Amino acid sequence: MKDFEYEQPQSLAEAVQLVQEHQGAARLLAGGTDLIDQVRMGRYQPDYVIDIKKIPELNVLEHSSEGLRIGAAVPCYKIYGDKEIVKQYSALTDSCTIIGGTQIQSRASVGGNLCNSGPAGDSIPSLIALDATCVIAGSQGERTVPVADFCTGPGKNVLKPGELLVELRFPARPAHSSSHFRRFIPRNEMDIAVVSVGASVVLDDKGETIVSARIALGAVGPKVINAVEAADALAGQPVNEDSIQKAAEIAISLATPITDMRGTKEYRLHLTGVLTKRVLLKAIERAKA
Q: Could you say which of 33, 124, 226, 266 has the lowest number of CB atoms within 10 Å?
């Protein structure tokens, strides 16, 4: 492993300055559960590693009537350990409980998982389903980007040189709504999704009609797919098997999987339909409860 300099800024302003100063030669460390392996394997050979996990702005965890804020360095266990977040943002806590094991979850952050920008990233479908927005800081100030637009390809995203992710913001959840995330993994392979699906639904007061929905598909394209057409097909439809089946079929048509060691293209397409139906059914069940 190549030697590198270690920096530990104590403020967001100091972190932005260091990222700007060392852009292209530095990697950011939050939990480090991905970065440490990437450096050991030679995927990245940074001259500087900037540890951002002690910066207050990146450790915000706050929910109110206006929604939810999660700093980019907040570890997974703090998210699923909050009962109100579990209740209101179920898909996100579904994701956080399966990112690695307990030890990994004590360090790994949703912000880091997003910035890693893998098409099979376990938190990304949930973030899209819950309509999360990224707050990004750089030398030119702050800007916001929907999570649905953040990843641009495998391991690639919209962060410009000298920028870093500060926090994720979620709108307040409406009444009669809920969400769910589920993935399928091969039992004898790596803990990486063959297919994953995150979805959220809003029902009418009687729980008989789907007012709106959001669906995101993981590991079936070069980035997580925001399945807008599948979600839109549910709006105004009755809560029944036909509505959910139609959405699942549209989700299959949007998927563009490949064949690799974890599964064939055909298998992934089949799983996309199966998981979309199961995730929608669970989200609806939760919303009714």
A: 266
Token pair 């030398």: residue: 139
Inform me whether the pLDDT recorded for 189 exceeds 90: no
CATH of the domain at 27: 3.30.43.10
Show contacts of 188-193: CB within 8 Å, 24+ apart. 189/261, 189/262, 190/262, 191/100, 192/120, 192/219, 192/262, 193/120, 193/122, 193/218, 193/219
Residues 182, 156, single domain; the answer is no
Tell me: the pLDDT tens digits for 228-246?
Answer: 999 999 999 999 999 999 9
Q: What are phi and psi of 90, to 5 degrees?
A: -60, -40
* Backbone conformation region of residue 100, classed left if phi is above 0, alpha if psi is from -120 to 50, else beta: left
**E-strand stretches of the chain:** 5-7, 26-29, 48-51, 61-64, 67-71, 133-138, 141-146, 151-153, 156-157, 164-171, 177-184, 195-203, 209-218, 225-226, 237-238
Q: Residue 190: is its pLDDT beyond 80?
A: no
- What are the helix and strand counts (H, E) for the chain? 11, 15
What single-letter amino acid sits at 129?
A
Residues 70 and 124 in one domain: yes
Question: Cβ(276)–Cβ(215) under 8 Å?
Answer: yes
pTM over 0.85: yes
For 203, the domain range is: 177-288
DSSP run (H or E) holding 243: helix 241-254
